[in-house]
Amino acid sequence: MHTILIVDDEPNYLVVLSELLSEEGFEVFTASSADKGLKIAQDTDLDLVLTDMRMPGMDGLELLKTLKTIDFDLPVIMITAFGEVDMAVAAMQAGAFTYLTKPFNNDELVVNIRKAVEYYTLIKENRRLRDAMRGGHGFAGMVGTNPKIQQVFRLIEKVAPTPSAVLITGESGTGKELVARAVHYNSPRDQGPFISINCAALPESLLESELFGHEKGAFTGAVALRKGRFELAHNGTMFLDEVGDMPLSLQPKLLRVLQEKTIERVGGSKTIRVDTRIVAATNKNLNEEVDTGAFREDLYYRLNVLQIHLPPLRERIDDIPPLVAHFIEKYSRELNRPNLRIDPEALHYLTTLPWPGNIRELENRINRACILCSNDYIAKNDVQADPVGTRKPVPTAGLDLDSLLRQEARLPDVLDTIEEEMIRKALARADFVQTHAADNLGITKSLLQYKMKKYGIEKKG
């Protein structure tokens, strides 16, 4: 649903225009002054502003110029009185989308508004497309000749043109988001937005707001209306990473999006239609999650219309040489070291490792080696020494396992105990610098903050 702000100091105009545009399917905000309108524009995701030219205090032209400093592309339609040609010209020069002279025809108004909203939608989608395409898509970043990965490529070609939901499965680090992007950019929705969210990285309350948006005042801190990811993904693709970690309480709402193509913002009652294709990914066995009651069976079948499974790197060792070449080329450009190359012994060594972290671990090793190697030559010791992403042995000397693993202990309680202790020690070693502690733990800063809140961990003093 597109949002429009009407600014006019005449109450009758606000009422009439608000009713007209609401009936046309727009979400309408009104303001009786430019100052009030500016506050709404700063607090709300708007698609268009319709403002009178002459108002007490800040006039429409000043409002237009200020709005352009907030979002230059936001379309503004000016309403002028008959004979105000000079002001209309000034407004157009300042960036107004168009102007209408009072009295105007309602059909003319609606036609111009729809043109402006379509223009702005295209601008926003092109922004996202340019940002996404900077790294290249299609099958960019997906390298390999192994029969298993070639089968993945063939599946992408088959499922991408369809409107159906796609479930991507595989271990962490196998490239599930690359597959999701390939599905999007090889589909009829390729000109629309690709919006992603990691369902495991946010606590339940924040995840709901991120997915569905919220109304102003819906909860403490909701100082402005905010559109959720599903609204932003309208006419495009919504990628739900780690969907197996979505809380049970939010799963019915996701099911509703799949079934009815509608959402409601947190704190709101208005039903909003969204045309969004859903691509989900998980490293969990959702069949087992359904059996244990951690995942809804009806949602699983809605998501699992088309499935693409990514093999772990250890099952496609023959793809390591081309992957290494791909990553060296990538980082040689970023580091401005065009002559980087790898020693055959180092390359052979990489093919002997178990790769628990899959392609992400391999890329991290090559990235580090490209930075630290001498004379543009990656030797065996460059990919050996404390590589990023490898799993370090977990010391158990300090853990009272006999106590933790007593007969009546539940596995979640044991894991929570260990996790809390690791987080406390990592924060202490990092002098409570959360970014450093998260890096040392191998998790994101946002996930660390969620865990700290979960265990009530706060910096003292």
SSE inventory with pairings:
Elements: E1 3-7, H1 11-23, E2 27-31, H2 34-43, E3 48-52, H3 60-70, E4 76-80, H4 85-93, E5 98-101, H5 106-133, H6 147-159, E6 166-169, H7 176-185, E7 194-198, H8 204-212, E8 213-214, E9 226-227, H9 229-232, E10 237-241, H10 251-260, E11 262-263, E12 272-273, E13 277-282, H11 286-291, H12 297-303, E14 306-309, H13 320-334, E15 341-342, H14 344-350, H15 358-372, E16 377-378, H16 380-384, H17 401-404, H18 411-429, H19 434-441, H20 445-455
Parallel strand pairs: 1-2, 1-3, 3-4, 4-5, 6-13, 6-14, 7-10, 10-13, 15-16
Antiparallel strand pairs: 8-9, 11-12
Helix pairs in contact: 2-3, 10-12, 13-15, 18-19, 19-20
Explain how this protein is built.
With 461 residues, this protein is α/β, with parallel strands linked by helices. The protein is built from 20 helices and 16 strands. The strands form five sheets. Strands 2-1-3-4-5 form a five-stranded parallel beta sheet, with helices on both faces. Helix 1 (11-23) links the parallel strand 1 (3-7) and strand 2. It is elongated, with a radius of gyration of 27 Å.
Describe the structure using short key phrases.
461 residues; alpha/beta; Rossmann fold; Helicase, Ruva Protein, domain 3; 4 domains; five-stranded parallel β-sheet; 20 helices; 16 strands
The proportion of strand residues reads: 5-15%
- The helicity comes to 40-55%
Biggest sheet statistics:
5 strands, parallel
Number of beta-strand segments: 16
At the first level of CATH, the class of the largest domain is Alpha Beta
CATH topology of the largest domain: Rossmann fold
- CATH arch. level architecture of the largest domain: 3-Layer(aba) Sandwich
How far from one another are the termini? Answer: 48 Å
Sheet with the most strands: spatial strand order: 2-1-3-4-5
Rg (C-alpha, Å): 27 Å
Low-confidence stretches: 132-138, 387-394
Name given to the CATH homologous superfamily of the largest domain: P-loop containing nucleotide triphosphate hydrolases
Question: How many domains, in number, for the residues?
Answer: 4
Structural class: alpha/beta
Overall 3D form: elongated
Mean pLDDT: 87
